[in-house]
């Protein structure tokens, strides 16, 4: 569903402008699946719209539900046959977050990530990005899981800041009061550390939450895990975050996947503490620790005991830190597991 496409259609049909907002509301607020569901439109207009323009950017879906029913994953087949995945999560009763993809595959090639093994096939359009949110609104109309969505996180397949134009377009629609009307404070965009993208984001989207995937604070070891570190080193990333705080006095989330014996030792904890404390306003950096969700990449996740010790070392250094709950592992819907495949 793309508002501009609906607006153009309304113009060609010589209809009043308010018809556009009626359709947008039907999709974004009430989960319409097609123009036939836009009940406030005349029958003839609905029929013409369904024949003239495509309502949704995907043509086929497959849904997976975790055993504990806290997580749902949808594999969506786009019109060109590309496959993407999006996840609906409920970390606590009554609270639902949607994780959306920004690309088909990913060029970052992080060693531990299933999406990175796909390589980059193409970037998504803004419509394909927002349609993932719309899909879960439609799904909820049938299954009545939530009263409203609480959070949207750009942490699915792809590197959002490598598809900045489409991501920005999608953000404008998500926060538009005439469309989804989401609060900026409930939207998060993640990056593997694209410094130029962070600088742009700081200037133009200071109210959107920023998350940085770090995963190792030792230069050569991070390069092994995340090849992007060759271009944007830890020193450059520190400067980018320092610059970010000149524009946005908001908390930045540091994502840190715990890999057994690879980044979970005392030495690694000290390096992470040092990385954070060298940045002005370290109190605005919050670390999210995630025990690795295993893929076919050959890594293992840290034990709960090791993870707890690692977290305590950060707390002792007065670093704000949370241990994130692993969700959706049994449906390959957890962090790092999305690979755009039917199973």
UniProtKB/TrEMBL annotation:
Location within or outside the cell: Cytoplasm
Keywords: 4Fe-4S, Cytoplasm, Iron, Iron-sulfur, Metal-binding, Methyltransferase, S-adenosyl-L-methionine, Transferase
InterPro entries in the cross-refs: Aldolase_TIM, Methyltransferase_A, rRNA_lsu_MTrfase_RlmN/Cfr, rSAM, rSAM_sf
Transmembrane helix in keyword set: no
Entry GO terms, CC: cytoplasm
The protein's required cofactors: [4Fe-4S] cluster
Family annotation (PROSITE patterns): RADICAL_SAM
Keyword Metal-binding: yes
Single GO molecular function: 4 iron, 4 sulfur cluster binding
Any GO BP: tRNA methylation
Radical SAM core domain residues: 92-330
Chief location: cytoplasm
Gene3D superfamilies associated with the record: Aldolase class I (3.20.20.70)
Domain of life of the organism encoding this protein: Bacteria
UniProt cross-references to Pfam families, sorted A to Z: Radical_SAM
This protein's name: Radical SAM core domain-containing protein
């Amino acid at each position: 569903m793309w508002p501009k496409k609906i607006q153009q259609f309304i113009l060609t049909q010589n209809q009043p402008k308010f018809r556009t907002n009626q359709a947008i509301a039907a999709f974004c607020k009430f989960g319409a699946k097609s123009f036939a569901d836009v009940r406030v439109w005349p029958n003839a207009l609905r029929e013409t719209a369904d024949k003239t323009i495509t309502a949704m950017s995907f043509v086929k879906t497959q849904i997976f539900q975790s055993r504990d029913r806290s997580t749902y994953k949808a594999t969506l087949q786009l019109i060109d046959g590309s496959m993407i995945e999006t996840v609906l999560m409920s970390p606590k009763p009554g609270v639902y977050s949607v994780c959306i993809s920004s690309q088909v595959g990913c060029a970052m090639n992080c060693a531990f990530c299933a999406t990175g093994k796909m390589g980059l096939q193409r970037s998504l359009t803004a419509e394909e990005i927002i349609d993932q949110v719309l899909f879960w609104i439609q799904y909820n109309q049938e299954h009545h899981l939530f009263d409203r969505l609480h959070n949207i996180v750009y942490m699915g397949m792809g590197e959002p800041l490598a598809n900045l134009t489409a991501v920005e377009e999608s953000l404008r629609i998500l926060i538009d009061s005439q469309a989804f009307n989401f609060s900026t404070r409930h939207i998060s965009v993640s990056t593997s550390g694209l410094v130029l993208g962070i600088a742009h984001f700081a200037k133009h989207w200071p109210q959107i939450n920023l998350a940085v995937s770090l995963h190792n604070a030792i230069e050569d070891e991070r390069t092994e895990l995340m090849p992007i570190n060759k271009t944007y080193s830890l020193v450059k990333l520190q400067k980018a975050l320092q610059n970010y705080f000149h524009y946005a006095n908001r908390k930045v989330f540091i994502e840190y996947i715990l890999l057994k014996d690879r980044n979970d030792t005392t030495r690694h904890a000290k390096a992470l503490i040092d990385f954070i404390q060298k940045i002005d306003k370290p109190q605005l950096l919050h670390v999210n620790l995630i025990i690795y969700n295993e893929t076919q990449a050959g890594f293992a996740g840290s034990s709960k005991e090791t993870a707890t010790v690692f977290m305590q070392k950060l707390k002792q250094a007065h670093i704000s830190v949370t241990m994130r709950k692993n969700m959706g592992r049994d449906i390959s819907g957890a962090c790092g597991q999305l690979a755009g495949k039917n199973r």
